[in-house]
Amino acid sequence: xxxxxxxxxxxxxxxxxxxxxxxxxxxxxxxxxxxxxxxxxxxxxxxxxxxxxxxxxxxxxxxxxxxxxxxxxxxxxxxxxxxxxxxxxxxxxxxxxxxxxxxxxxxxxxxxxxxxxxxxxxxxxxxxxxxxxxxxxxxxxxxxxxxxxxxxxxxxxxxxxxxxxxxxxxxxxxxxxxxxxxxxxxxxxxxxxxxxxxxxxxxxxxxxxxxxxxxxxxxxxxxxxxxxxxxxxxxxxxxxxxxxxxxxxxxxxxxxxxxxxxxxxxxxxxxxxxxxxxxxxxxxxxxxxxxxxxxxxxxxxxxxxxxxxxxxxxxxxxxxxxxxxxxxxxxxxxxxxxxxxxxxxxxxxxxxxxxxxxxxxxxxxxxxxxxxxxxxxxxxxxxxxxxxxxxxxxxxxxxxxxxxxxxxxxxxxxxxxxxxxxxxxxxxxxxxxxxxxxxxxxxxxxxxxxxxxxxxxxxxxxxxxxxxxxxxxxxxxxxxxxxxxxxxxxxxxxxxxxxxxxxx
Length: 504
Ligand code: GLN
Prior knowledge:
Bound molecules: glutamine
Number of helices: 16
Distance between the termini: 43 Å
Low-confidence stretches: none
Shape: globular
CATH class of the largest domain: Mainly Alpha
Mean pLDDT: 92
Number of domains: 2
CATH architecture of the largest domain: Up-down Bundle
Strand order of the largest sheet: 1-2
Helix content: over 70%
Strand content: under 5%
Order of helices and strands: EEHHHHHHHEEHHHHHHHHH
CATH superfamily of the largest domain: MFS general substrate transporter like domains
């Protein structure tokens, strides 16, 4: 009753601004579409798009990597355009429409439509993902202690989408055909858009997320106000990106055009950060150095974690004894564990903090990488329990996903907030972009591994002892690299701690 006298943007649910719950459901549905589609993507490429190629695994690994890298790199551009011209609301709308369109185009069975669809999702995600995350932050005033738990709730929404979607889209794909699975992903995205739109209609966001500068918003270029020009350019970017995605064949060694583009971007970003560090004060320089280190550790972690949609899905399809769920549906396991574990883990941090034993960031990161290492070690020894057809028990995959999800919770949410603490105010937005780039670069690692573990065959039933040896051998190497990286981070912990100064 009391609420009726309070303006909608001031109303609260569970102690949080009401707007958070609209963003929660909008992001839940967007991630539903993203992960529902991702669960089918590699299997669809291997079994349909590249079916006739003996090198279909290689091609699928290359396209998956290019798609993943571009889908996260586009967030840097989408974030900038929103900051300067469009504002968060408009960006989220534009992104959502492009993504929904992408998912529906994916429902058309045609190779050209396939690459165009992925490209629409790349551009759409660039506008949607960074801005909905920043919007959450904008709901709270600086220093509001509810902000961290607001992000925890939001991360939960991401993972509810990531849990339900592979189950449903996987089931639809298997029972009725791929395109029903992709179509449902599209409906998910439309639902997200409707939720967001209803939040705006009910005025739960107050004046948040409007264009930052009306003059720039209305300013005309080529006869069109920028607000419309950006929409036109976004649609025009899609075919260009589609061409990049379709150029999966190697042009230099085993590098394709997108691999080369990301090498150049990496060098430019590092050079630019070195330049900023050179001009910064000593304290800023130390902190920035740690911010870069954290981003690099995160890149390594995602590089192994994001294998779930490619090599691990193929391993599940070819070498894991599945009865209750199918290979596409195993993509739900990571999110399932995040949902189960995120509250216990955050209670653990609070408990340890009270006892003054909350580990500092480098130790959490070192442990996170160790968890990733152990998770791949479990997969690597699964071969020992294989039956005569080279099929391993499902429990190995389940334990693997449990362990890597613990690792994720030690790193991803922690890293996000440390980046903001460690970066000088004037470049926080830029460093956020670099943070998202860590996922983009991670997909280059995913692509590299996927190409190494590609099995040459056009046999739709490929599998058995032959692929088992390839996969477990690869997992063994990954385990060693992740464990090695984790140990190095732990050993360097005292030094990194010193560089971080007063940041915990
Ligand atoms: N699972 C998280 C999400 O979808 C993070 C993924 C990533 O950054 N690689 O938002």
